[in-house]
Amino acid sequence: MGAACRLFALAPLMLASAGCTASAPSFNATDVQSPLSLERTIPLPATRGRIDHLAIDPVGAQLFVAEVANGTVDIVDLKAGKVAYRIAGLKGPQGVAWLPKSKQLVVACQDGSVRFYDQKDWRAIATVALGRDADDMRVDERNGQVVIGYGSGGLATIDPETHRIVSRVTFEGHPEGFALAGERAFVNVPDDGAILAVDRDARTVAARWPTGIHRLNFPMALDPSGRSILIAYRLPATLMRLDARTGQALASVSICGDSDDLFVDGDREIVVCGAGHVDIVRNDRVAATVETGKGARTGLFAPALRTLFVAVPAREGPATIWVLRVKDAG
After folding, report:
1. Please, are residues 288 and 31 in contact by the beta-carbon 8 Å criterion?
2. In this structure, what is the dihedral angle of CA atoms 306, 312, 318, 319, given to the nearest 10 degrees?
3. What tens digit of pLDDT does each residue of 182-222 get?
4. Peptide bond into 236 cis (omega under 30)
5. pTM for this model (two decimals)
6. Predicted confidence band at 27 (pLDDT cuts at 50, 70, 90)?
7. What are residue 168's DSSP bridge partners?
8. Which residues does residue 77 pair with via DSSP β-bridges, in sequence order?
9. Concatenated DSSP letters for 123-166?
10. Sheet holding 298-302, edge to edge
């Protein structure tokens, strides 16, 4: 559903956090029944440029923010509502992951390094060199290993106990969003105009599905049933559901522009877009739209907390994290 088909009853709310200014973007939803409500904003002091991925420690109430242009990773205390610690001096931090068992923070950087930090004092305890452009990462639920997209085409798996690379799968084109499903990984490769089904155990590409007229497929999410995958394209701005076995398109809907993060919440999809919107899609139609800020395309949905975090870069105001309450689907 396009923007012209949406009914807007915009209701600006006052931003509740200290550090917000009159020039900062304000919260707007399509109607008072919006599934998102703003709980607070958290300032990211002295943070400039693009913000990349987020990760969370829900037990310790910590949010990790990869500030790629700033060369920093912020550890945000969600209870106090402020940055508790900053890791600085990094070369393009892009991906972050939290390992609850060992209480380690993993950071993947543009220089190809993957760094492991101990929670006790946020000291680097190991560095693994992948080559270049270490980016998004996922934690394998089967064994706690870390899977990282990197370089001009590859997924690397690192054992967090030994801090060694245990396997690699290579292909053509830099991997963007990807999802793990047991031994399989579904990978968006916009450089190749394709979606790959990768067998990580066999270290092979099992299938390649061309994206056709749809291009710039960055975010991806796996349906909880495992039967379908969701792909958000930037050109044209579309959310598409594909059969996870065949890659066949099952449904599509027009969404907000410059999508970069995508999450599944029951029978809804949450799309975070750099055009300054979050779209809530239900039954293959846009059910609600929330305005955020230009360039705010980084998000993280924490289902257990019923919370969506959106990183708003320093453009219209200082860089902030928006903490949005996600209402249960009715």
Report:
1. yes
2. 80
3. 999 999 999 999 999 999 999 999 999 999 999 999 999 99
4. yes
5. 0.90
6. low
7. 156
8. 62, 82
9. EEEEEEE-SS----EEE-TTT--EEEEETTTEEEEEETTTTEEE
10. 36-43, 320-326, 307-312, 298-302
